[in-house]
Amino acid sequence: MTDEITFDDFMKVDIRVGKILRAEDYPEARKPAIKMWIDFGPEIGERKTSAQVTAHYTPETLIGKQVIGVVNFLPRQIGKFMSEVLVLGLADEAGSIVLLSPDQNVPLGERMC
Question: Which one of 27, 81, 85, 102 has the minimum C-beta count within 10 Å?
Fold first, then answer.
């Protein structure tokens, strides 16, 4: 278990839903990864990221998928690619990442509540 936080601490993390508009392999990454461009709606706009999700996804299967991401982290350089959002996922039994996604479509940019 990690340290407890307050509800106010949790509310500082801006977690939103977005739709993957574009995805492509990222062969320059140290570990296999996919680059993604995600639309988080009119308030946030389009953000890009890379993620090590190649065990369960191909760029083609990601297009149009709604995903959950943290949109208020500072950008982070991942190799030669600047990541602007952190997509969220969980590890399966083999340690491969499965992306978090709503089970029904929701408006882009909707904040987690």
Answer: 27
Contacts of 92 (CB under 8 A, 6+ apart): 55, 56, 98
What domain range is 40 assigned to? Answer: 14-99
Give this prediction's pTM: 0.94
| DSSP symbols for the chain | ------HHHHHTS-EEEEEEEEEEE-TTSSS--EEEEEE-HHHH-EEEEEE--TTT--HHHHTT-EEEEE-SSPPEEETTEEE--EE-EEE-TTS-EEE---SS---TTPBP-
Within a domain: 2: no
Structural domain includes residue 82: yes
Domains in the chain: how many in total?
1
- Does a structural domain hold residue 6? no
